[in-house]
């Protein structure tokens, strides 16, 4: 089982959330307005 990482980018108009693995492959990404 590989290590997973979570990320949140909070900008002025939206949030972007992502999950990636240790090989820097994005597994899931979602964006929603603030």
Automatic annotation (TrEMBL):
Full protein name: Fructokinase
Annotated organism of origin: Enterococcus faecium (Streptococcus faecium)
